[in-house]
């Protein structure tokens, strides 16, 4: 990697004012090369040089990946008496990863804040040790795709030899108009410290608008390709984030601290592109051959992402289910016009769930006594949905002729009139069950992510050992996991735990 930068800085402080200005430019080139050749027929185990090999087998291969990024940056920061804060940033970047016609883009941001706790009338206040308001607005960009995704890529056809040498074929379709994904972000919040920071609260809210979203655009396989990178549509994200820390007790020997965090995000599709409309049409065409009396292809059991303005990127689509009829064992569906039917149709798809949680975060504690300390952390999510493909593929649509199956395939089925069950009549097993809200489940989780215990030796305990510091720590990760969705044995990976014993020695 080659990385170079040049900066010019200005700083001035006068009568409580502080001003910092920076102008900089940067250039970066990242290159990775690899080659591979296979040899065989060495006369002895100690003769490992390729010169001793009897032959080269297979085909040698090599790769060379290079990316370049050039940018210029302007930043300025201003403060007055550490009360009023303001900043302004602007930059222009050019990247070789984008299409040849859209490599350059300009970004900027501005922000302001006020430290109310630094006012003179607040300095004698015993309640607030910090009271700060802040807000910012800006435009940022990002790359979130693999190298050369915007370029046509060719590959040597090494399986055949022509009089003029190896041939080449086009194996990746590029997009010379692929441009930066851009995001406008409005962020504002408050920070509060109480009773000499025994309690600290940070609350933030944001509104993000992403335009020229970069994603895979699926195209007919008759073109020789299945997809290429394209800028598609606009998405809005709104959310809140909370952080809380409390020092409940502390003295010369004891310390007890609690912490917690909460975050919620909601995304909404503001505008869909023609590419998104074409994708929706292809999903609908996928089900054009579905026959509710005989179709058994597993593709009809899948849920597929669809794009609609006002909906979410995390929405689950399918047909709303009213359950299994006790009379005949067929599934009863609710059509979009309110009618009831026992015939599944992709034309009646609607939103049946959302994988995004209503909230997620972490909490934990730190407890210490003299040199002994313990730290624990937990993670949680709640309010999200998940489509249980395991129930669909291995229970509802199980192949009882060719596979070993779960006992639920037989025991949880409708068998006779009057049965109250969650699975359809087994005699309908040859017809694939389509995406249905019957398989949408609430996905609430609680995870004990880590527990660390450590002991720090005092300096006087280490004098005889001539050590400056000695610390033992024992960490356990992923101790416990709970979910409202059952983990399927033999299908889901077992929940793994890890243990680490660490010794830090300072001489």
From TrEMBL:
SUPFAM superfamilies: Porins (SSF56935). InterPro entries: Beta-barrel_TonB_sf, TonB-dep_rcpt-like. It is a multi-pass membrane protein. It is found in: Cell outer membrane. One of its GO terms (cellular component) is cell outer membrane. The keyword Ribosomal protein does not apply. Keywords: Cell outer membrane, Membrane, Receptor, Transmembrane, Transmembrane beta strand, Transport. Its main location: membrane. Signal peptide: none annotated. Belongs to the TonB-dependent receptor family. This is TonB-dependent receptor. It comes from Bacteroides ovatus. The lineage of its organism: Bacteria, Pseudomonadati, Bacteroidota, Bacteroidia, Bacteroidales.
């Amino acid at each position: 990697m080659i990385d170079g930068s040049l900066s010019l800085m200005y700083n001035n402080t006068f009568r409580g004012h502080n001003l910092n200005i920076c102008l900089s430019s940067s250039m970066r080139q990242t290159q990775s090369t690899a080659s591979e050749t296979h040899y065989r027929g060495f006369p002895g185990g100690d003769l490992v040089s390729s010169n001793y090999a009897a032959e080269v087998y297979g085909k040698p291969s090599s790769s060379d990946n290079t990316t370049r990024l050039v940018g210029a940056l302007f930043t300025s920061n201003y403060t007055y008496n550490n009360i009023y804060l303001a900043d302004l940033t602007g930059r222009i970047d050019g990247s070789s990863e984008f299409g040849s016609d859209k490599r350059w883009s300009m970004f900027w941001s501005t922000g302001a804040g006020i430290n109310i706790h630094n006012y003179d009338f607040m300095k004698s206040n015993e309640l607030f040790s910090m009271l700060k308001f802040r807000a910012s607005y800006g435009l940022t960009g990002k790359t979130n795709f693999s190298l050369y995704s915007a370029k046509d890529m060719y590959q040597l056809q090494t399986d055949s030899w022509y009089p003029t040498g190896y041939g080449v074929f086009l194996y990746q379709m590029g997009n010379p108009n692929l441009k930066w994904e851009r995001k406008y972000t409005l962020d504002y919040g408050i920070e509060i410290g109480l009773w000499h920071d025994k309690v600290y609260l940070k609350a933030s809210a944001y509104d993000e608008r992403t335009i020229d979203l970069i994603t895979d655009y699926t195209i007919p396989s008759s073109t020789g390709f299945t997809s290429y990178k394209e800028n598609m549509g606009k998405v809005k994200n709104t959310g809140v984030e909370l952080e809380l820390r409390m020092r409940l007790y502390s003295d010369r020997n004891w310390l007890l601290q609690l912490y917690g965090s909460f975050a919620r995000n909601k995304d909404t599709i503001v505008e869909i592109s023609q590419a998104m409309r074409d994708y929706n049409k292809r999903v609908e065409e996928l089900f054009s051959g579905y026959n509710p009396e005989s179709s058994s292809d597993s593709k009809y059991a899948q849920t597929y992402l669809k794009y609609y303005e006002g909906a979410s990127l995390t929405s689950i689509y399918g047909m709303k289910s009213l359950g299994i009829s006790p009379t005949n064992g067929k599934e009863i569906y609710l059509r979009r016009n309110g009618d009831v039917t026992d015939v599944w149709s992709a034309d009646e798809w609607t939103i049946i769930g959302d994988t995004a949680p209503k909230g997620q975060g972490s909490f934990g504690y730190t407890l210490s006594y003299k040199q002994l300390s313990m730290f624990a952390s937990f993670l949680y999510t709640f309010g999200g949905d998940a489509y249980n493909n395991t129930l669909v593929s291995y229970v509802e649509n199980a192949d009882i002729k060719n596979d070993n199956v779960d006992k639920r395939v037989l025991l949880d089925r409708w068998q006779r009139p009057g049965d109250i069950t969650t699975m359809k009549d087994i005699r309908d097993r040859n017809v694939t069950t389509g995406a249905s809200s019957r398989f949408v489940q609430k996905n609430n989780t609680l995870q004990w992510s880590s527990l660390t215990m450590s002991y720090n030796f005092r300096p006087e305990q280490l004098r005889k050992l001539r050590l400056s510091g000695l610390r033992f720590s024992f960490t356990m990760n992923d101790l416990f996991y709970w979910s409202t969705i059952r983990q399927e044995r033999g299908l889901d990976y077992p929940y793994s735990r890890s243990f680490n014993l660490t010794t830090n020695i300072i001489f």
